[in-house]
Design a protein that fits this description.
Shape: globular
Helix content: 25-40%
Number of domains: 1
Oligomer: single chain
CATH topology: Jelly Rolls
Order of helices and strands: HEHEHHEEEEHHHHEEEEHHHEE
Number of strands: 12
Bound molecules: fe (ii) ion
Structural class: alpha+beta
Amino acid sequence: MLTSEQKRFFETFGFLIIKDFFSQNEINTISKEFNYRSKVASNIEPFDGTKRQTIDMSDDDSPFFASLLDNEQLLSIGKTIHNRILPWSTNIDRHVDNTFWHHDAGGYEWYGVKFAFYLDSLTSQNGALRVIPGSHKQPFHDELAHIKNLNYSWIRKNYTAASKSSFIAPIPSYACESNPGDLVIFDYRIFHASLGGSKDRHMCTVNFINYPKTPKQLAITIHEAKNYFKDTHNTAAPWNPKKVVSENWLANTNQNPNRQWGIDQWRKFSKMKVSDTGYKIETVEGKLKVIPI
Ligand SMILES: [Fe+2]
């Protein structure tokens, strides 16, 4: 649960830091599961500090992470922000060096809330998440794309140049400095980057999607719900399941009611037709656009 001040802060700036969210015991468990799943991935493709690895954490060999998608406290925070939220995924990332400016929304109508936490103490100089406060809001969000350093269609063709410090540093931003146990919460649509991180920066995320509130949001949710239950190729990262979450998570053998509600919602949306909303979905420059039919 957030205080009204925290809620207002998030609504205004698109991010929020909660200090000491996890206990020392939980940090130890997080660290143990992080190391175990990293080892599973490294046994398939050794991590050598040159290429980022993203590792799914929804399966039975990382039960604490998997349970965070059902976690009452995270759900309560998400509900305070978006009224209702849908579980999406939980991952760890072994980041390498800087991260170029980007936002995580698949399209402006496809967004949610991301809970991030780190296993190292991070400052502005060694890889803390940098955000442009308020950039989750329109028209500011779209206006920022006019700046080359923030323009996704340019960046996706020029990842190496966009990842250079000289390209990231000039953009004014706020660094979300954190220690292990702290929670950094942000709206997918906020522009973010990181600077000065090591060749093995450990990031953990739990990701939720906004429950659709408009026909445009419904169109994109139906589109993505169909993907939620589809097998995809995981050849680039064979340590991950073929779906967004593991089959074990979807089986919900412990019958967690929060999880079951989320799965039922995705099933419901997956059976609906995008065209019934009056919109269609197209991919433009790597992002989903909702277009009237
Ligand atoms: Fe991101």
